[in-house]
Specification:
174 residues, 0% strand, mainly alpha, single chain
Length: 174
C-alpha cells in the first residue's frame, strides 16, 4: 500500500493503480492472508480510493475517466457486505468504503436519480454510525484522561467523523 500511495502522491497514477490492482489480485494479499483478512480488506479500500482519485482528473494533465468510477462502484458494492461482516459496520474501514461508494456514485455519469438518493442515504448512515462510534470512543478517552490527566488532542476517529459529516453536508445540502 505504501509504495502505491507514494507513487500516487508523486503523480505516477497509472503505476500506482497497477500496483494497487496487483496487491488486490489473486496472487496478492488474498493469497498471503486469505480473502477475509483485515489486510486484504484494507487493500480493497485502498484500491477503491485509488480508482476514485485516478478517475477524477483533478489536474489539467489528467482527464476524467468515468470507467474508473464505475469500477470503484462495483468494487465497493462487492466488498461493503464482506467488510461489514468481518470487521463490523461501525469499523473505520467499513465507513471509509461506504464513503468511497458515495463518491463513486456521485461521480459516475451513468448514475440515476435513484442511485444518487441511495448515495445520500449511505452517506447519512455512515455519518450517524461514525458519530455513534466516536461518542463511545470519547467516553473511553475521557475516562482514561481523567485517570492520567493528559491534554491530548481529539482522537483521529473524531476528526474523521467531522470530515465525513462535512463531506456529506457538502454533497447533499438540505
Amino acid at each position: 500500500h505504501n509504495v502505491a500511495g507514494t507513487l500516487m502522491n508523486l503523480g505516477q497514477r497509472d503505476k500506482a493503480l497497477e500496483l494497487h490492482r496487483e496487491i488486490c489480485g489473486p496472487a496478492g494479499l488474498a493469497a498471503a492472508f486469505g480473502a477475509t483478512h483485515e489486510h486484504t480488506l484494507r487493500s480493497k479500500l485502498s484500491l477503491s480510493s485509488a480508482l476514485i482519485a485516478c478517475g477524477r482528473g483533478e489536474k489539467p494533465q489528467y482527464s476524467v475517466k468515468p470507467q474508473l468510477f464505475r469500477e470503484a462502484r462495483s468494487l465497493t458494492e462487492e466488498y461493503i457486505p464482506v467488510v461489514e461482516r468481518v470487521l463490523g459496520p461501525d469499523h473505520e474501514c467499513s465507513l471509509q468504503l461506504r464513503e468511497n461508494r458515495v463518491e463513486a456514485i456521485m461521480n459516475d455519469t451513468s448514475s440515476t436519480p435513484g442511485d444518487r438518493a441511495e448515495a445520500k442515504a449511505v452517506c447519512e448512515d455512515a455519518t450517524r454510525r461514525a458519530r455513534r462510534a466516536t461518542s463511545s470512543s470519547r467516553r473511553r478517552t475521557r475516562s482514561a484522561r481523567s485517570s492520567r490527566s493528559s491534554g491530548a488532542t481529539a482522537p483521529a476517529a473524531t476528526r474523521a467523523t467531522r470530515r465525513r459529516s462535512r463531506s456529506c453536508a457538502r454533497r447533499f445540502p438540505r
